[in-house]
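Dear Dr. V.,

Thank you for agreeing to look over these. As mentioned in my earlier message, I'm a first-year student in the group and I'm still getting used to reading structure tokens, so any feedback on how I've presented them would be very welcome. I ran two proteins. I've put each sequence directly above its structure. The first is here:
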Amino acid sequence: MKIDNFFAELKRRNVYKVAVAYAVVAWLLIQVATQVFPIFEIPNWAGRLVVLLLILGFPVALIFSWAFEITPEGIKLESEIEPSKSIKRGTGRKIVAMTIALAVVAAGLFVYQLVRSKATVTPRQHASAARTEAAPGPQRSIAVLPFVNMSADKNDEYLSDGMTEELLNVLTKVKSLHVPGRSSSFAFKGRIDEDIFRNVGEQLHVNAVLEGSVRKAGDKLRITAQLINVNDGFHLWSETYDRDMKDILAVQSDVARRVVEALQVQLGVEEARALTKKPTENPEAHRLYLLGRYHFAKFTRAGWDNAIHYYEQALQVDPTFALAYCGLADTYGWAGGQTLPGREAWAKEMEFAQKALALDPNLAEAHLAMGTALFSVLDPRGSLKELDHAVELNPNLALAYDQYGWTFAEMGRHDESIAAEKKALELDPLNSLFNTDLAFFFYWARRYDDAIAQVRKTLELDPNTGLAHHCLGWCMVLKGNLNGAKTEFQKAAALDDLPWYKADLGYAYGASGDRAKAEQVLRDLDDLAKKQYVSPALHASVYLGLGEKAKALDWIEKAYEDRDPMLWWTTDQLYDSIRNEPRFQAVIQKVNALKEGAKR
């Protein structure tokens, strides 16, 4: 057959028309599948299967058009039909009419998608608004529930908790995605409610939940992850990974990427890079870091000691591991004034924050660590600058807003500290520490009724929060209810052995006239100081309760030498009775000089 005759035959047999019609129908089917499949929770692989079948069907349709003809009597081979009886021409007109009709439908669908896409994308282009308004759209919010430890060794729980934290940290870097913070997620740890997903959705204001499990056997890992719609419990995506321990970072990156794809979140260049960026290339360093985070989160003396040990080991394996330096800075920051003198702890906190920042200037956690370290050494203005950098890099970093609250409070800017803490709670609503901090900020603003209402809300979330009972007790002191204060201080001391809570009781005993019990607390603090660090400010508070101002001032001067945390709160109501004493004013002047020196 000559080539010209071949092309003419293709035209006569409607092969061209079938090709065009098939392309239009295929495109329309793909668009319909894209819109309909998510509604019925049909998994992504089904959509890919539709596309594959349509591609494979294209040559089949062309071959069918060439070899067969549809007649009133049914489908027949082209070779069996006499040319005079062929109805190819009429069939061709029908194909053209059908193609035009389908093309109109396809064009309408395309316009609809284009308009909807613009409506979805535009709000996310306003980055500054996204920082202050937490208004996630459909399937743009997700809670990461604690992964379950399925290993035979229960000591491997640090791996499942670590997987949860790492996924949280990565997903919070997606600015258009609302991800409640760690404490809110871990509030559901161990819960097996029948309607757990609906409860999570209602309490954390999300419409999707990521859950999973980790099983370790030797160096082998099995990690399962599944993304679930909270409204109906249907799976949006699920996967099982059988990998070696050294592959855990790759699994975390893949899970985060697949979640973002399933939620149909469009990523910017930096966000896409953040999903694949590994904090370290060394699996052993990463394992030790996860152990450090696990022990730090216990918020106990032993937990902090263990955290420091594991962070230091991680840095021996990988000296360039910036997040491990952040972990050390955080731990020393919390230990200051509790297990170490502030002067010693703040120096180490600053050292490690500087190292983290030098290693990775684009790490939000490093700027947060530096902001906290500057706050500790009485440089609130420098702290605010670093916190600004942190939230610019990651607007969803809840701890940064909590630290804003403390820094503003140190500066006496109480309205701003309250507003910042409320923002932290938007990002991590079930965080008992943030809820307690907000109560403290109301307290320092001398809004005692607001502070009491807030701290009672905290205790509804977690009645075993010693810090919340401590805060409530001081609110009652200022409201003149010393018996109620003693009850709250006793609850705090029963929940945690921190020396601060013993001193609270000593103050309350002294202020209510029970000198014998107050003096016993002083002896207990002296005995404890022989075994561990005890802040000089604690003796000062008991003596203030007893009304012995001179002895209180002796201990306050010692607290200044230690750079005790009390220096942040020289405006605290506890010191009202000695505020105009020359010795206290001298301490205030030294503190102000430190702040001025930092500003220069």
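The second protein is here, in the same arrangement:
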Amino acid sequence: MLEVDRLEVAHADAVAVWDVSLTVRPRELVTVVGPNGAGKTTLFNVLNGFLQPDAGQVRYRGTPIHGLRPSAICGRGIGRTFQVVRTFPQLTVLDNVMVGAFAHETSPPRARERARAAMAAVGLGRADDVPGALTTLDLRLMELARCLASAPDLILLDEPLAGLARDGVETMAALVRRVRDAGVSVVIIEHTMYAVVQLVDRLVVLDHGRRIAQGLPNDVVRDPAVIEAYLGQRWLRHVERIRP
């Protein structure tokens, strides 16, 4: 479904992403992890058109999409959320979600209907509230609903579990699973490793802009290079305790 081939992005004199390749298959749930500054958000910004690569290709359903505007990429079926939830603070929650629906709808009544369906799918009420009245979990749900209202086939979720308490993490993880089970491919940037290992089909690890590992979660988290670059010795001790 999504193919990233030898992607390179440089910022000023620093290389943010270097020779990164990965694929995402239909109905797959993939997480991109790595330390701060590893190039994760830069990768997402290329995938949804906020940045243009210096080299390499991004293909979606076999067609190159690098170079397209974010609105065009959204229209082709790739949705996006952000680490810091972006809202229209003067609009109601329903109107915020409707913004996503206008990716495909031109009729306000139909966009409102699509937005209400997306809110129902994530279990979010409070349609007439403004975003400033929402909890962190509700803001995450609102942004996910706005993303789903654009009718994506693939969604990019940038730290959807950030700032959530344990029960909020479980709620969001269950929703992400449900979205994938409904046929939407999912790529996540996330640091909440205890949830990630249980949630995803495959892990991709970046460090200093390079891909250093990918594979099944239980294999990747035992990789010495991943432990050294990202997880640390505390994680290694935890792995040793649970190793069969």
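From my reading of the second output: The chain has a mean pLDDT of 89. The first helix runs from residue 40 to 47. Does that match how you would interpret it?

Kind regards,
E.
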